[in-house]
Structure prediction request, 305 residues.
Amino acid sequence: MILTITLNPAIDVRYKIGNFDINGVFRGKPAKTAGGKGLNVSRVLRTLGEEVEASGFLGGNSGDWISDEIANIGIKDSFIKTDVETRSCIAILGNGTQTEILEMGEKISENFVEEFLEFFRNRFDRFETICISGSVPEGVQEDIYKVLCEIAGKKKVILDTSGRLLLKGIEGNPYLVKPNKEELEGLLERELITFREVIEGAKELKNKGCKNVLVSLGKDGAIFIDESEKVYKVSIPKIDVKNSVGSGDSTIAGFAYAINRNKTPEEALKLAMACGMSNAMIDETGKIDLNVVEEFLPKIEVEKL
Ligand SMILES: Nc1ncnc2c1ncn2[C@@H]1O[C@H](COP(=O)(O)OP(=O)(O)OP(=O)(O)O)[C@@H](O)[C@H]1O
Ligand SMILES: [Mg+2]
Prediction:
């Protein structure tokens, strides 16, 4: 069983409105999913056949809706129930356009943050692998991920976030971080053009305190640096992309599933990429097709540099 942490979940609401334009009035039918990066990871883990316990903060009617959704797919709900409404994030898919409105999330009061930390302290030891993903709502301290990594100690904590949350989190020595290229460039405050530069950047990040670093590169696959500084270059076949949002989350799910079963880095990287690619070929976020994943596995190349 894997524990996932989503401190800032959301109901993702998608409208498909072909002729969408600013200033217009449109009618549309919303498609809703239980969102937030950690919940995407959780869904993909379930599809892979893994048992999942999910925690973070949920509140109000939206929180209840998300609780129902995750219960329906057999995820154990360990979310702390707060007194504020869980946010919604809206995406409007037009003809080749995507307009997004991301609510910030209401402030979480200190007592709920304490309750969550208490849950984590009491519960982390039951899991070998813990996935922590995404942003945090107002009211949660900037070093929360560092605190969680420190509590989790030797457990395999996979941390997928960005900016200051990631920089601080790394100080807690997570097992793996998975920035995409833009996130890595943001952290290092410089552009990374060639594979060589990405490898150097990933090594720099590792030296800041993460045991393993996986840099996902969209259609260009990934670069992985393991604990002993071995470098792996992962190449993937070309695919027809529908919507690559959530491909990073699917990648994390694949990797977490594999390492939780003590697979080799090569096997973990292949499953990680195949899950990301399958997600990119489906409209919905955080969804994979196991047949497609199986089909991709032998087509992914892992090269030790
Ligand atoms: N356009 C694409 N073509 C082929 N594979 C893709 C594409 N986009 C994503 N993938 C697959 O998914 C993996 C992760 O994608 P990406 O690097 O875009 O993550 P990300 O930016 O963190 O995504 P998100 O944060 O939205 O979940 C890639 O390493 C690759 O295996
Ligand atoms: Mg990402």
